[in-house]
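User: When convenient, might I ask for sequence and structure tokens for a protein?

AI:
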Amino acid sequence: MKLLRFLVPGYGRRRWKIYLWLGWTGTVTGSCFLLVAIGLAVLEGYFLMHSSTAEGPIIASVESQVPADPQTNTPARTEFCPQFRYQSTDGAAHVVTASTCSNAPSFKIGEQVRVNYSDSNFSDAQISSFGERWAFVFGFGIAGFILAPIGFLLLRSVRSLGHFLDPIGFWDAN
């Protein structure tokens, strides 16, 4: 492709190695992200097919302190995890703290929410909201759909310049 020749001066000399490396990295990483997204979607679908539903109130926003990270200069912060109560089909009440937290409370105390829970493990329950269920699936899926085609196009343009796409012989070629 002539696109990279136009955008990057000196592309045909030695920069093709950089684009070969970026192409393989994007293609492999994007493909892995897509596989993770598919796996998470299957896992979530399996959970939803085999879970029961109930309604229950949010009873608290549990504060969780996230310590500062000196490596990235991220300051300490407080996150809020919704705690909810629901009644299972056997009539017992269960209290669960959600694993998905946010820096501002995402639910109001007393708000009624729909809950999906496992009949075999009552602590395996989640609030039935789009973000709680599908955030990671969409995150990995979108990243995969962006990275894989970019990597593929980079590899295709390196190949169109007459270079081999062998990642092992990458270091030996000029």
Q: What stands out?
A: DSSP finds three helices and five strands in the chain. The first helix runs from residue 3 to 7. Residues 53 and 116 are 5 Å apart (CA to CA). Strands lie at 51-66, 77-87, 93-97, 112-118, 125-127.
